[in-house]
Amino acid sequence: WDSPWGRGRPGWHIECSAMIERNFGMGPIDIHGGGHDLIFPHHENEIAQSTCAHDGAQFCRTWMHNGFVNVHGTKMSKSLGNFTTVRQLRQKWHGEVIRLALLMSHYRAPLDMTETRLKEAKALLDGWHRAWGEIKLPPSETPDPELPEALSDDLDTWGAVTWLGEMAGQLDWINWTPT
Question: In a 3-state reduction of DSSP, which class is residue 53?
Fold first, then answer.
């Protein structure tokens, strides 16, 4: 379109700011995320325009940028033909296996989604189900383990998964009795 400053075009940065304000108010919103490729220029433009539009008020409290999902070391992409949908994965794998496979790396790190990773996630889950199936406590006496510190450390989901595995493997925890 024509503007006083020259030819213009729609910008996806302003659309996101407008959608956030329409759905969540003037903010600040708690968490805004996307792929690490959106940091510049997309998110930096969102911050600039939203801050200016609201007299310098903070737009977002926390930004989280995830790594790409890769297949055998290459970014998953429709154009490369290495794209798999969740619907396709669900034909072979249970949803909890897929979710655990996604949590088996830090959210900012690239994630290599392979058959091997899915098998590892399934093996972990099978081991946890066996261990937790041995617990013979009434629900009111089930131990309430504290939230693993890993989740408080930049949402380290792999650290939390490791913690769960350690908890499932501890004989003392499995035979826990209330004090």
Answer: helix
Distance CA 96, CA 52 (A): 43
User: What does DSSP say about strands 69-71 and 29-35: parallel, antiparallel, or unpaired?
Assistant: unpaired
Q: Phi/psi class of residue 56: alpha, beta or left (left: φ > 0; alpha: ψ in -120 to 50)?
A: left
Rounded CA-CA distance 85/172 in Å is: 41
- Please check the confidence at residue 176 and state whether its pLDDT lies above 90: no
**pLDDT at 170 exceeding the cut of 70:** no
DSSP one-letter code for 71:
E
Give SS3 for 1: coil
- Residues with Cβ within 8 Å of residue 26, at least 6 apart in sequence: 54, 57
Average pLDDT over residues 35-58: 90
Instruction: Collapse the DSSP code of 25 into the 3-class scheme (helix H, G, I; strand E, B; otherwise coil) and give the result.
Output: coil
Mean pLDDT of the chain: 83
Worst-scoring range by mean pLDDT, 81-90, 93-102, 134-143, 156-165? 134-143
Written as six digits, the tokens of 12 are 């996806």
Q: Note the pLDDT tens digit of each residue in 138-149.
A: 555 555 556 668
